Amino acid sequence: MDNFVLHTPTKVLFGEGQIAHLNSVIPKQARVLILYGGGSIKRNGVMDQVQNALKGYTLFEFGGIEPNPTYETLMKAVELVRQEKIDFLLAVGGGSVLDGTKFIAAAALYTQEPWHIIETTGGDITQAIPLGSVLTLPATGSEMNAGGVISRKSTGDKQHFFSPSVIPQFAILDPVTTYTLPQRQIANGVVDAFIHTMEQYLTYPVDAKVQDRFAEGLLLTLIEEGPRALAEPENYAIRANIMWSATMALNGLIGAGVPQDWATHMLGHEITAMHGLDHAQTLAIVLPSVMNAKREQKRAKLLQYAERIWNLREGSEDSRIDAAIAATRHFFEQMGMPTHLSDYGLDGSSIPALIEKLKQHGMTALGEHGDITLQDSQRILEAAR
User: Which ranges in the chain belong to alpha helices (H)?
Assistant: First the structure.
């Protein structure tokens, strides 16, 4: 396996009732801004739990962070942070709220125009306001990593950034908070976590047996528990396993010392930015095409995936790979996640514009080998129609 440095400083408080311990992880004198999305946390009681746990604190609120958080909205929060001299940010919601909060944490102290954070992929961030999270939608793993993805409506961009300065100090994961999620959001979360795992697993072998088997354990858990989560929305054990799988899928553990792909994400981001599809929907569209297009480069891991995840041991190598790709597609569709552009009313006519956006964003050599050119990306999208 490759050399690596792994530092995961986020304190995790996992399980029912853990929101009550918020006052043990936020400084008592802090001026706290609670950030959230569409307001479901006020309807399902999570906000009440947060406020009860933080009685005596100086609290402020900012709501309305979108499912794909926009620069325009987040800059309004940055103004509030500066105006009220906020010194702690608490994200209460899913990955979009967390991503947005990370951007706000850095942008509020940034000396340049904050979009520069995105233009430089976070490379010039030197400080950020401390933040923590109460997670209500398991999917992105943002609660325990250094990354975020931000959109800009005015330009149609959706891009990522990274900085150790924005790693959350803590993450509260209470599976009960996920009971009231719509089935679409549960499906999104399961598929997102699955593909996060695949981006770090389905590359080429480097004899990283621990990472491989951790990744395979996550994939098997999501395949087993995903459909059950749709059928049994208040089964604590199922929700707990999905919640922890989504966190573990992108907290750095399974990606340490192994090559990583992320081409599916880069293509998916452009589809979301242009057409407004959910993040996980775009991933479910793109991944099967990437698997097929790069089957030679990924052959060894595809065969390992076929055997260990789908128990495919008979037939030729190509037939096993075909069956593994088909099984993957079937799993996404079993979760209620269609896997073709046409399923969402898209006929492929925007593919040239999508490719142009990839070019603008410098996404011209994608994948673990850097060998997915713009022409390859176009072929992948054409095959996903």
Answer: 40-43, 46-53, 71-84, 95-107, 115-119, 183-201, 209-231, 236-248, 263-275, 279-293, 299-310, 317-334, 351-360, 374-383
In which region does residue 168 sit, left (phi positive, over 0), alpha (psi from -120 to 50) or beta (all else)? beta
Whole domain around residue 126: which residue ranges? 11-177
What's the pLDDT tens digit per position in 329-383?
A: 999 999 999 999 999 999 999 999 999 999 999 999 999 999 999 999 999 999 9
Count of domains forming the chain: 2
Give residue 123's identity as a one-letter amino acid code.
Answer: G
Residue with tokens 């406020």: 51
In CATH, what number is assigned to the domain containing residue 317?
1.20.1090.10
Say if residues 286 and 269 touch (Cβ distance below 8 Å). no
Query: Within 10 A of 123 (CB to CB), how many other CB atoms are there?
Result: 11
User: Which token pair is 352?
Assistant: 């040239």
The residue among 132, 81, 90 whose CA lies nearest residue 108 is 81
Residue 1 resides in a domain: no
- The rounded distance, in Å, linking the Cα atoms of 328 and 194 is 10
